[in-house]
Amino acid sequence: MLLDTRYLILDTKILNTMITITDKAKDKIDHLMQDSAMGSDYFLRVSVKGGGCSGLSYNLDFDNEEQKGDQFFEDKGIKIALDMKSFLYLAGTELDFTDGLNGKGFNFVNPNASRTCGCGESFSV
């Protein structure tokens, strides 16, 4: 039984640090939610789908309906949902937002990606 308790503690630590959000990404997410008049029941859904030039691509959306198998995390007050497949690819990922001359949009800093495409929207492991 003691071993199970340690695993639960480890799982809790992983869940609390699964995806982190930079201050710029938080500000942009808050702005988008306010502009769309989304209530506090909405959260950010992050997922990984097949496709893109490197094999897998990132997807961001807002949602207010929990789906079976969702894993929930929170960073800087932003609630994040991941499906189980995406959960496996995104451990330790940081979500950032860039609005510079070289491009504008959300960027993923994924330590699990062995290769990314030039635009940063797809990756492989």
TrEMBL record:
Domain Core: 19-121
GO molecular function, one term: 2 iron, 2 sulfur cluster binding
GO biological process: iron-sulfur cluster assembly
Matching Pfam families: Fe-S_biosyn (PF01521)
Family annotation (PROSITE patterns): HESB (PS01152)
InterPro entries: ATAP, ATAP_core_dom, FeS_cluster_insertion_CS, HesB-like_dom_sf, IscA_plant_cyanobact
Protein name as it appears in the record: Iron-sulfur cluster assembly protein
Species annotation: Pedobacter soli
